[in-house]
Amino acid sequence: MSTELLAPLDLAFWHLETDAHPMHLGALAVFAPAPGISPQHLLDLLGARAAAIPRLRMRVRDVLLPVGGAAWFTDKDFDVHRHVRQVVLPEGDFMAEATRLAGELMERPLGRGLPPWQMYLLHGAGDGTFAVLVKLHHALADGMRAVAIGAGIFDQIAAAGAGRGAVRRRPVPPRSWLPGPYEAAGMALDRIGDVGRALGVGASVVRASRLDLRGSTALTAISSGTRRLAVAEMDAEAVRRIRRAEGGTANDVLLAVVAGALRRWMLERGEVLPGADPRALIPVSRRRPGGAADGNRLSAYLLGLPVGEPDARERLRLVRAGMVRNKAAGPMRGAGAVAVLADQLPALAHRFGAPLAGNAARMLFDILVTSVPLPRSALSLGGCPLRAVYPMAPLARGQSLAVALSTYGGRVQVGLVADGKALPDLDRLASAVGDELRDLRALFPVVPAPA
């Protein structure tokens, strides 16, 4: 039976979860119909492809050593039918019904006695449009890893995997578990460096923490455990045009759009704009090309979203300047790198310190904003073209809103996950995203090419 210890950050995500604060991420993938493809065929295809992904056959169990630790075990009783299900939506607007149901399904924690993931086939649209909702526990995957795992359901990735066949691992020669003198010295130096970096991050976290938690009443509302999902889309070419005209990155433009949308939404609902800019936690992947694929590899930046600034162009400039400062410091420094601290803590500390850490998140940031990279090539399921993928991020304790963005098919798709009671008007915020990009794009008109 295959086993693998949970990495420290994975263990932290595992223990941070409560019934009211499930720690899974997800995506709502929407597909166009194809002739002759029935819902039952799609359900069978999803089940077969999910069952063929080794990672999805593993579940978490406690271990004796390290004390307080846990490990991934291959589930010998794995049954894909416990994980892949279908739901027939009522007649009406398909996307409205799909997002409503997806929000309800995202409320429910994943069962801990099984591999921690689920897929739902949502169908019932008159024109044959359907969607697949994917839920993966954050201990199982970060955003990049979730894409790599979930991509196995698509025709193109599944066919490529079948063509390669089983990958044979090279045998590892036996060796003593005792390190040699040079290796021991290197390990000691690495450990000293890790501890020093952790102390620096810890000091930054203490300096950045806020005891005064006043701000937007919606963003700082007491968690109800309910979930609501809304989606939005933006023209990726418009984002690139603004980036080319103003400099910086496409992500800077998207962060400025989020800031402007929050401002619009707050003003529309009659809120007084907060005196201090809401802080966004922006995850940063620490994965290296060709590096180990297992375990979460995350750090983050902290960025004040300039909702108090009335000028859209100035908001973009402020976001760019903030991200330049973050990148100059690097993803391993500053209070945003709080995830790095998890790598330095023993397993027992994660088990008993999770409640304290969960409550502290509210003192550090107000909103999560993350970008999820997707394959650029066209994808399909059973010959049905993929239209859009709306990513969904988990809500930390004390947080009411998380924003996730991905780009596919020339469009930027936005998934907004919110506490259902704190943000009952989440659809208005989704509309504000499109309105903000429209007005920002108007500041950068297309210049005709010279004749």
TrEMBL record:
The EC number(s) this enzyme carries: 2.3.1.20
Name this protein carries in UniProt: Diacylglycerol O-acyltransferase
Catalysed reactions listed for this entry: an acyl-CoA + a 1,2-diacyl-sn-glycerol = a triacyl-sn-glycerol + CoA
Keyword Cell membrane attached: no
Domain O-acyltransferase WSD1-like N-terminal span(s) in chain numbering: 6-253
Assigned keywords, A-Z: Acyltransferase, Glycerol metabolism, Lipid biosynthesis, Lipid metabolism, Transferase
GO molecular function: acyltransferase activity
Pathway(s) served: Glycerolipid metabolism; triacylglycerol biosynthesis; Lipid metabolism
Top-level EC class as recorded in UniProt: transferase
InterPro entries, sorted: Acyl_transf_WS/DGAT, O-acyltransferase_WSD1-like, O-acyltransferase_WSD1_C, O-acyltransferase_WSD1_N
Similarity comment text for this entry: Belongs to the long-chain O-acyltransferase family.
Signal among keywords: no
Domain O-acyltransferase WSD1 C-terminal: 295-440
